[in-house]
Each structure stands twice: as structure tokens, then as C-alpha cells.
Amino acid sequence: MTRSGRTLAALVFLPCWACGSSTAPARTAPTPTPAASAVATGTAVAPSPSAREGMAPVPPASDETARIATMLAQVQRVRQLDATKSVPGVELDRAALIAHVKAHVARELPPQAIRNEGLELQLFGFLPTEYDYEGAEYDLLEEQLAGYYEPADGTMYLASDLRADEADATLAHELVHALQDQHWDLERRSRYHQGAGDEAETVSALAEGDATSAMYDMIVPRVLGANATALDVPDISGQIREGISQGPGAKAPSVMRSSLAAPYIYGTLFVNALRRQGGWAAVNRAWEEPPTTTEQLLHVEKWLAHEPAKAVSAPPFASLGSSWMPSDEDSEGELGARTAFEEWLSLSDAAQVAGGWGGDRAVLVVNGDRAAFGWNMRYDAGLPGPPRAARAFTLIARALEHLLGPAASSDRDAVCHERKDRGPIAIAHKGLDLIVTLGPAHVGPWSSAGNCALAMKWIREIEATR
Hints:
- With 466 residues, the chain is an alpha+beta fold.
- The chain folds into two domains: 6-304, no CATH class; 318-465, Protein Transport Mog1p, Chain A (3-Layer(aba) Sandwich).
- It is 47% helix and 14% strand.
- Strands 4, 5, 6, 7, 8, 9, 10 and 11 form an eight-stranded antiparallel beta sheet that branches.
- The longest helix has 35 residues, at 254-288.
- The chain is globular and about 65 Å long.
- It starts with 5 loop residues before the first helix and ends with a helix.
């Protein structure tokens, strides 16, 4: 659903759109998420037997070794964290870089995981029904990918067509990931675990925020005479959103752009908040005791209080009939919810509706060529102001009416809209819970496989068993 790029982002090395700001070189550092990290360089390092399996041979260390070593010394000084070992630098053309990324994904990620993400986004209406989601993710990556660190073989890969400023900006960001990897084992932290999407996105955002904040420290003083913590929320959010909307990103659906930018925006805001309180030592503490939810990442006080997520059961789906089976079950988290709501609401309203998130669980179910999606989000109790679930319901219901026209079914706490191509979409609120159901729909070719009577029945089933 809202995890557009989340599963891929936890394993693949996404561009650093933050680097495309007015304070940075025009086209710069692609950044990996936790799986991507960079280290010092030296002689070639052989990967472990497990890592070597299925991987292309590592070329000899290139002439990039000296450049990486020089940049690493600067990064260590800025990030105030010492490197513990060296790795080689290798130049590759872009086709070879993408081939390495795809090989990494093939080793680490079940193919169905990315397909499920695309299917969920299509059920929401955020992607066209006939859309190659995985191919679009790689297309978005390919043109802007300038380099990445592969922890499985300990090598820093750089595109061979980079200008000097591009290579420097890439290394400035990637080598922070190197230090993270050496001190906190990013390879282990970034492994895919089914059903742990929110936690994976949290670690991804911590890694990207750390690297982006440090990289800004190497750029911002030239312009502002201050470090990255002088940048405010509009600076960071605006620069990153603008960067991802340029080049190939301009043609990508908005949900993909928003989701891919989110770890950089909110990770940097989290890291900068920590730095203002306790410098880089506070960021190091966050690595030792990392936030476990994107709610903690978005609200530093909740991380400091170790506030856990509420346990929410996956929505049941007996109302859909027999032979339905779960294909994916996960928690979207506050950041995933915010990204979804941004497709229907203003940025400020989406943040308010997602705020107060306490926990959630979603399930994608399939039956032959049919698919459906159910999501139950629970707010924290005792929040000030009007009940969050009721307010969220009202705002989303208005947005759906504007988007889809009058509801086919409605009452005080639930509404449903018919959609010819994707099946019904229904939303409801009860107590602290906001509930969304999508479909069922036939997915090849796309057409509705249900109606609002079925969707409302499903809503009531979820309400009764929450």
C-alpha cells in the first residue's frame, strides 16, 4: 500500500534527492538505505562465501581508491566517527550498476514482495491499473544512480560517467553509510523480514537522515556559514521533494515520489533534532537504541519515551467468501499512513490525520485473479481535541467524494464508493479505529469483483473482531 518503494528501499540504493538542492551540486549523491553503506578503501576485499554466492566477481580496485580515501578522511572528521577498515572503489557504467542492484534484490527480496506493493497501490488507485511497478522503480533509479556501497562484498561502486563534483557528493553521502555499516552492521539491520515494513522503513530513515545531515554539513557552511542543523523543515522537505520531481522522477506517480523521498526528509529531521540536543553523540545513541516505529522517528519525544506500537490484529476477511488467502500482511506505520493520506489530502491535513497513530495492521488477500485489501489503523487513546478516527473519517470521506463523486452507500460512520476497474473502496471509524477496505477486484484485466454491499459487510466484520 503506502509502502511504495519501502521494500525495495530497504535493500536497494536509492538516489539522494536531497543533494539536488540549491545548496548542493545540481545532480548528486544517490543514497542507499540501510543495505547501502560505504567504507574506506584499499585493496580488494573478497566477500564471504555466503555473500559471494550469486554475485558477479569484484573487479580489481580502481583509481577511485585515492579519491575515496581522501573523502573518507573528511567524512570521518565531519561525522565524528572513525572508520575501522578499508574497501575498494570500482567504477562501472550505469548498466552494470543497475545489474548489481538487481542481483542484490534477487538475493535478498522475495519477488512477490514488490509485486504485492504494486498491487496494493493499484487497489488504492494510486497507480494506473496497467502499470509495471517494479520496472518503474528501476527506471526511477537508473538515471540518477551515481554509486552505492555493497555490504555483501565490501565494495564501493561508482558510475564511470560522473563529473568530479558528482563523485564527491556521492562519496560524501555513501561514506557515512560506510561508517554506519562498520559500527552498527547495516547488512544485518537491512535484511528483509516479511511483515516488518514499518520497522524497516524506520531504520532506512535513520540511515538516510544520518548520511544526509552529515553531507549537508559538508555543503551548507559554504552557503550559510552554519551546519545542517541550521536548515528548517521547509528547507529540507522542499529541497528533497523538488529534487525527486526532476528528471525521471517528474514522470513517476506522486505516491512513488513521496514514498521514496520520505526516509530522507523525516530521517534528516529526526537526526537534526538529535544533533541540536546532543550533537553526533545523540545520533550514535539512536543507533545503539534505534527507534522501532516511524511514529518514534517522526516524534523524537516518543523515541525518548520508548513508546511502543499498539498491537492490532490483521483484518479478517471471511465476508469475502471461501478460498481467499493472505498474500501479504504488514504494518504501514505513521509515515506510511501519512504518505497514503497525502494522495487524498493536503500535506498538513495528511500529517494531522496520521498524527496520533498508535498501531495498525493491513492484509492483502487473493483468490485466483481477484485481490482485496483491508487496513485497520488505531489511534492512541487520550489525545487532545476531537476524536482522531472520526476527524480522519470526515476528511477522507470528503476527499473521496470530491475524487469519485457521491458515495454509493453511506451512514454515520461508514461510506463506500463503487469503482468499475478496482472494485469498491470503503472507509469507516469506530472508537479509536479507522478502517479501509479496497476491492475485491479482478486484476487481469482489471474490473470490479464486488460491490458496496460486500464492502460494507467486510467493514462490519472488521469492526466486530478488532
